[in-house]
Design goal:
Elements lengths: L1 H23 L10 E3 L6 E3 L26 E4 L5 E3 L3 E3 L2 E4 L7 E5 L5 E3 L4 E4 L3 E9 L4 E9 L6 E5 L3 E2 L10 E5 L5 E3 L5 E3 L3 E9 L7 E8 L1 E3 L5 E2 L4 E3 L2 E3 L6 E5 L5 E3 L4 E4 L3 E9 L2 E9 L1
Parallel strand pairs: 4-11, 12-18, 20-27
Antiparallel strand pairs: 1-2, 3-6, 5-9, 7-10, 8-9, 10-11, 13-16, 14-17, 15-16, 17-18, 19-22, 21-25, 23-26, 24-25, 26-27
C-alpha cells in the first residue's frame, strides 16, 4: 500500500515538473547578451540577467520625432473682393495643419483706404485698391487684394431742371437703391437716375440692396440751366465745346467772352484758346446767366 502511494506521488511530481518546463521553455538559442528570439512567437527576450540596454541583434531598431505646432500655411477665408466705403467686414483665416496655432498679425498696405485690426476687423475708408495681409510669427502668410468702392460717384452735384443724372458708380446700378428726401425738387426715375424737377436743394440717399440702413448720401442742387461738365484748362489753339443742359428747347442762347484775346467763343458755344491767361465764357439762356472760367496754359 505504501509502495503504491509512493509511486503515485512520484508520478505526480514528474507530471508537475514537466508541465512547468513546458510553460517556460521554448525553442531558440540564447545569444551573447543573454537573450534570444522565440521561434514559435517571434518575440525577443532575455535570460540569465540579460537586459535591453545592449543588443547585437540586427533586427532591433529605434526612432524619434518632434511634432511642431507651427502652421505650414495660412489662408484668408474670404471670397469677397469688393467692399464699399464705410463698410465693416470681419476677415477670418485658417491654418494648416488644423491642429497648429501661432501668433497672427493683420496689416493693410494703405491705411487711408482701409484699416484692419488685430482680430481681422476691416473698415473701408475711401475708394481704391488695398492689399490685406495675414501673417503667422513663423513667416507663413496670405494676402487678398480688395477693391474699395463708393456706391455713388459724388457726394454733391448740381443738375438742371429736366436733366437725368446717373449718380451710381459704374457697374453697380443693379446693386444700389436710391431715395430722395424731397421729390418735388428731384426724383428717382425708372433707370435709377436723379432727375431735376424744380429749383432748390434736396438730399438723395443710397443703400446697397439688402442692407437695412441708407448709409450713403448726395446733396443735390437743381438749377434752371447749367453747362455740361468739361475741362477748364486748355492749350493755345485748342478748341472746347460748351453745351447748355436743361429745358432749352425754343430758348434764345447767346455766348460771349470777357477776354477775347485769351479765349473767344462762337455762337455755337465753341471756345478757341488764343493765348495764355484766363477768360470767363458767358452763356445767357433767357434771363439765366452761366459763367465758365477758362484757363489757357
Amino acid at each position: 500500500m505504501k509502495k503504491s502511494l509512493y509511486i503515485l506521488i512520484g508520478i505526480i511530481i514528474i507530471f508537475v515538473t514537466n508541465e512547468g518546463f513546458n510553460i517556460s521553455a521554448h525553442p531558440g538559442r540564447t545569444d551573447s547578451s543573454g537573450g534570444h528570439y522565440n521561434r514559435g512567437t517571434g518575440e525577443y527576450h532575455y535570460h540569465n540577467g540579460g537586459s535591453s540596454s545592449s543588443s547585437s541583434s540586427s533586427n532591433s531598431t529605434s526612432s524619434s520625432s518632434t511634432i511642431s505646432n507651427k502652421p505650414t500655411s495660412i489662408s484668408i477665408k474670404s471670397s469677397k473682393t469688393i467692399i464699399y466705403i464705410n463698410d465693416i467686414t470681419y476677415l477670418t483665416y485658417s491654418l494648416y495643419p488644423s491642429y497648429s496655432y501661432d501668433t497672427i498679425t493683420w496689416t493693410s498696405s494703405n491705411i487711408n483706404i482701409a484699416t484692419v485690426s488685430s482680430d481681422g476687423k476691416l473698415i473701408a475708408h475711401k475708394p481704391g485698391k488695398v492689399t490685406i495681409t495675414v501673417k503667422a510669427s513663423n513667416g507663413v502668410k496670405d494676402e487678398i487684394v480688395l477693391n474699395i468702392l463708393s456706391p455713388l460717384k459724388k457726394d454733391k452735384i448740381t443738375i438742371a431742371i429736366g436733366e437725368a443724372y446717373n449718380i451710381i458708380s459704374t457697374g453697380l446700378n443693379n446693386d444700389i437703391s436710391l431715395m430722395t428726401y424731397n421729390d418735388d425738387i428731384a426724383y428717382i426715375d425708372s433707370n435709377n437716375r436723379i432727375v431735376g424737377k424744380s429749383k432748390g436743394k434736396t438730399t438723395v440717399y443710397a443703400r446697397i440692396n439688402g442692407a437695412y440702413s441708407w448709409d450713403y448720401e448726395c446733396e443735390v442742387t437743381v438749377v434752371t440751366y447749367r453747362l455740361k461738365e468739361v475741362k477748364s484748362k486748355l492749350s493755345v489753339e485748342e478748341l472746347l465745346q460748351l453745351t447748355p443742359i436743361g429745358r432749352i428747347k425754343g430758348k434764345e442762347i447767346t455766348w460771349s467772352s470777357d477776354n477775347n484775346s485769351v479765349a473767344s467763343v462762337d455762337d455755337e458755344g465753341i471756345v478757341i484758346a488764343n493765348k495764355k491767361g484766363t477768360a470767363n465764357i458767358i452763356c445767357k439762356i433767357g434771363k439765366t446767366t452761366i459763367i465758365k472760367k477758362i484757363t489757357v496754359e
